Amino acid sequence: MQILQAGEVRPEENVNVLSVTNDADVLEVPLEGVDRIELNFPKFSDGRAFSQAYLLRRRRKFAGDIRATGDVLVDQVVQMQRTGFSSAVLKEGKDVADVQRQFERYAEFYQADVVEQAPHFARS
To answer: Can you tell me whether residue 94 is helix, strand or coil?
Structure first.
């Protein structure tokens, strides 16, 4: 998962970006030609973007970049990856090194998710 600091995000040429609001139905959003979908966390306690990312990956089979923006905290990033996000822009003042420690701390899970589609007991 690509982690970016808020100050290092630059506009990219030839990247078709779709910003989706939290109240949008991602099952209805047109995805043709979209390279990246940005899902916003207006505050850390608003988790609708987790569900949106999961639906985009599992039901819509979106293979492009799904980026978390807004009030993105370090302790949310592992769950973001598990639900389908492929990149995140950390809230101002948060350290990318802390994110790596989170991934090391929580390296494996019993439940299935977008990354590992079989539960632990069913894996070979």
So the answer is: coil
Report d(CA 91, CA 73) in Å as an integer: 6
Measured CA to CA, the distance from residue 118 to residue 64 in angstroms comes to: 22
pLDDT tens-digit series, residues 56-93: 999 999 999 999 999 999 989 999 998 999 999 998 88
Pairwise CA distance, residues 118 & 124, whole Å = 10
pTM listed for this prediction:
0.87
Of the candidate CATH numbers 3.20.20.70, 3.40.50.2300, 3.40.50.11810, 2.60.40.1120, the domain formed by 2-122 belongs to 3.20.20.70
Long-range contacts of 110-119 (CB under 8 A, 24+ apart): 113/82, 113/83, 114/53, 114/54, 114/57, 114/58, 114/82, 114/83, 114/84, 115/81, 115/82
